[in-house]
Amino acid sequence: FLTTSVLTLISAWLWVGQVVAGQSMTPLHGLLLFALVGFTAWLVYKWYREHYFRAAMIFLLAQIIFFAIMIYLLGDLALGYLFLFTVFTAGALVGPAGAFGAATLALISELLLLKSLPDTELFPTLVLLQYLAAVIAGQAARSFYSALQAAEGQARESRANAAEARRHRGELHKTLKSLD
Predict the structure, then answer these.
(1) CA dist 145 → 27, 140, 157, 174, 176 (Å)
(2) Assuming Cys at both sites, which of 83, 112, 117, 134 could form a disulfide with 103, CB separation 3.0 to 4.6 Å?
(3) Half-sphere exposure of 24 (CA within 13 A, CB side)
(4) Among the listed residues 68, 48, 49, 50, the one whose alpha carbon sits nearest the alpha carbon of residue 58
């Protein structure tokens, strides 16, 4: 998770730098986006060990906000395809609910941006692809999470068996000691 976060944040940082250098965005907007990227990196690093779910949610929410701002500033709804990346990442990090949650947040972002964009005919295709990606990511993550739950169940059973073996060992030790 941390490697994915770092690589994504570096990519965002470079993209903003390139857009500002190309004068498609004002330097102030670039600085605000740099601040968003930096703040997200700090929160993810701070929480990824103790509060994994919180760190993952911050990371995914920051991606959606970042992409929505870039769509708004650049006036290009085609950048909405980047939300697919967030949907797949959410499926991998949080599971099927995360994938559908990310697709829904992307939809809400796009709905809020529709009035400010000149060309919106791509919107229905984006929504369809985002929810299709959520289904695919959810199915892929479902298998992973099923295997993880099975492994956790086996670990619990193994711990219970080890505790029972220790108890029997103690009883055997008492019996052998009483025979002496």
Answers:
(1) 43, 9, 18, 43, 46
(2) 134
(3) 13
(4) 48
